[in-house]
Design brief:
Helix content is about 20%, strand content about 30%. By secondary structure, the chain is of the alpha+beta class. Strand 9 and strand 10 form a beta hairpin.
Length: about 210
Amino acid sequence: MNGFFTLTLLALSQAPVSSATIDSTPCCSTCKEGTAKYWANDKPNKQCAETCVSPSDKLRLAELWVLTGGQGKFTNESAPCAKDGFHTYNRTDKLGAGPITVFLDKYDPDHLASINSAPCCSTCKEGTAKFWANDKPNKQCAETCISPTDKLKLAEYWVLTGGQGLMTKESAPCAKAGFHKYNRTDKLGAGPLTLFLDKYDPDHYDEAVIV
């Protein structure tokens, strides 16, 4: 990986934490003045992502590069995902925090296939530990397994969870927090920065534990 992106990822872990409400409609159908449309065919998750970023915002562009595994690219198309066969809006993900917050509109393919039928990270293999985060903006809970000595992945995880990711000795922290229903497994990043996040839905959307 280019040294700039490695150093940028480590720098991102020092950013302040913030939260925001996710809309039920796409955030980035039209990009405001000073920003441009970027998109990526998220093949591992069988989805397509769109966002708006200023071409001069090197930090956000570096974050987008990491999040999309180097696949995010500028486009003059107003609806690149639809043109690529992804017409159905699924959700908007909020990733990062503060000045490096990125909102990604996610679209499902016109012919949706099953991605994951079971969580990847119910049990962590030797040398890794369970990390989790209550993903408040997206009303979900996330679990993953990371080596406590892997500083790059820990920095990436910090950014992805807005600084909320914690190591735990609980085998099922999301279930304990009121999130029992497995939704999907997201694959983020690429190569040595690949992270798999099991996402769980709350048992009751108005009663989920907030930590």
